[in-house]
Specification:
534 residues; Rossmann fold
Length: 534
């Protein structure tokens, strides 16, 4: 299959600019690029969710055009979406056969559906319970259901769109093994991601997309630094340069914090935390385990049903968000577009949003001071904008995030809370944002980072708190292994995770040693004779 000069335009935005791509049987083709580079848009056209504005799709050498996903599925294309396309209240079996239900007279043959799921589970080593309701399944198992649903249509071409975003490291390793097995069956696989580590682990071929264009291909042997440079167009450092933390006393103290959602579900469950001045505490976990609600409860934008929050000894448990900000909290929200800025406001206006009273006399704004303040911050934070009077909505994602961070760091802070601080930001901007966060730590500020990116957590953290289903499973040192962190992210207590990871490591070393011995023996023997070479 070939995508030939595919172009897609949304208003003035060129999402895909004459992109060409070959999908070959028995190959895992990684499509690498930052969020917003146009990767998913391209694959959504292949799957019939969007229609190209230019170019064509060639299947077995003939042009095809898919008006909808049904036509793409019938042509042998399957897609595992970043945001699962499952019906939560249906069972696994019902989801997998949805749209082509076995049975007669409009009556579902549930026994046949269950049998199909069992056979596919065994064939692809993707164990799932056919009768389990999807909403009751862990995220990793829901991912398996998505994959089985795509495979049930006997797809020759499989697209995995950011499939590891909601998986633990162990679940990611399992998914990679599944993808390799599917490749070895002769299927063509497209793996969309922005994670360099995963690309190097699984790719047979790598295509890099930047701002809607293919900027080149890379070999799987390319280093992470080389891939990052292709993604952003310049050399970047992938390591966070920081000295050991100079920790002072606890500045943030959280006791028994509990948050209940509007429908009565406990999303933050009896959490105790302390963050000292001069340290970065990272909250890790698979997305949807209460980290976002924890951050919002600390600022007071969602109410806590129980618990106490103290900052520098002052009880803020019942304080308004405005009072908490004035007490020295800074907050970088998870979704900057909805909670971090006002898109139609200028850069200068956004930079004073949460402390505009500092630039007013008797109800009148000092516009000259606001502009001067903005010019200083845009220079300090390297915000790429034509003018401080430019609307923030017109800036790139990385520059929008710099505006949000600049605003929060432009005043003295006791505590900085940053939720997903580099989501949707290119590698170059990530390098800069990490540097400024570390600089804030070194001023003696307590820093709490919420991130689902384990590489980011490991790079920034002085300590790591792992959350699972609203509870803190444990607080561990920053040098804790990925294996242990991954087990904790799946709900395993710290001590048990350490034991399990140790057993796994020993087994892996034994397997590696056995493989090396077998390779050495084969090298010493003559081909096909079983005799030792002279």
């Amino acid at each position: 299959m070939r995508l030939d000069r595919i172009t897609k335009v949304f208003g003035s935005l060129v999402a895909n600019d004459a992109v060409s791509l070959d999908l070959r049987p028995g190959e895992i083709h990684c499509l690498l690029g930052e969020n917003g580079a146009g990767k998913s848009t391209l694959m959504n056209q292949l799957y019939g969710l969007l229609q190209p504005d230019g170019g064509e799709i060639l299947l077995d050498g003939a042009p095809v055009r898919f008006a909808n996903p049904r036509q793409a599925i019938d042509a042998g294309i399957g897609m595992v979406h970043q945001h699962f396309m499952l019906v939560d209240v249906f069972s696994v079996a019902e989801n997998i056969v949805l749209g082509r239900e076995p049975g007669r007279g409009g009556v579902l043959d549930l026994r046949a559906a269950r049998q199909l799921v069992r056979e596919m589970s065994e064939r692809y080593r993707l164990e799932v319970d056919p009768d389990a309701r999807v909403e009751d399944l862990p995220i990793g198992v829901q991912q398996r259901v998505e994959i089985l649903k795509a495979l049930s249509n006997d797809a020759r071409f499989l697209v995995f769109d950011e499939p590891t975003a909601v998986l633990t490291p162990q679940e990611t390793d399992e998914l990679i093994e599944v993808m390799r097995a599917l490749r070895d069956e002769g299927r063509a696989i497209v793996f969309i991601t922005h994670k360099l580590r995963e690309v190097r682990a699984i790719a047979d071929r790598i295509t890099v997309i930047r701002r809607g264009r293919v900027v080149g291909e890379a070999a799987p042997s390319a280093s992470e630094s080389e891939l990052a440079e292709m993604m952003v167009g310049r050399a970047v450092s992938l390591k966070v340069d920081k000295t050991p933390a100079q920790v002072a006393g606890a500045r943030l103290e959280v006791e028994h914090l509990t948050v209940t959602s509007p429908d009565g579900v406990v999303v933050v469950d009896d959490v105790d935390l302390q963050v000292a001045g001069g340290e970065i505490l990272c909250v890790a976990g698979v997305q949807g385990n209460g980290q976002s609600e924890l951050a919002e409860a600390l600022l007071g934008v969602v109410p806590a049903s129980r618990g106490r929050i103290r900052l520098d000894g002052t009880d803020l448990s019942r304080a308004t968000p405005r009072r908490r900000l004035r007490a020295g909290m800074g907050f970088v929200p998870e979704d900057r577009k909805y909670d971090g800025f006002v898109g139609s406001f200028t850069v200068a206006e956004n930079l004073v949003l949460n402390h505009v009273d500092a630039f007013a006399d008797r109800g009148l704004l000092r516009l000259g001071d606001i502009r001067s303040h903005a010019e200083t911050l845009t220079e300090q934070f390297d915000v790429r904008t034509q003018s401080v009077e430019t609307p923030v909505a017109s800036l790139s994602g990385g520059n929008q995030q710099k505006v949000v961070l600049a605003r929060e760091l432009s005043r003295p802070l006791s505590l900085l809370i940053a939720s997903q601080p580099t989501r949707g930001v290119d590698v170059g901007a990530i390098e800069f944002l990490h540097q400024r966060i570390v600089e804030e730590r070194d001023k003696g500020t307590a820093v709490l980072i919420v991130s689902t990116e384990l590489d980011e957590v490991s790079a920034l953290a002085d300590r790591i708190a792992v959350m699972y289903r609203g509870r803190v499973v444990g607080v561990v040192d920053a040098d804790t292994s990925r294996e242990v962190l991954g087990l904790m992210m799946a709900g395993v207590p710290h001590e048990e995770a350490v034991r399990s990871a140790s057993v796994t490591t020993v087994a892996e070393e034994e397997q590696k040693l056995e493989a090396e011995v077998a390779e050495h023996v084969a090298d010493l023997q003559g081909p096909g004779t079983g005799e030792r070479r002279a």
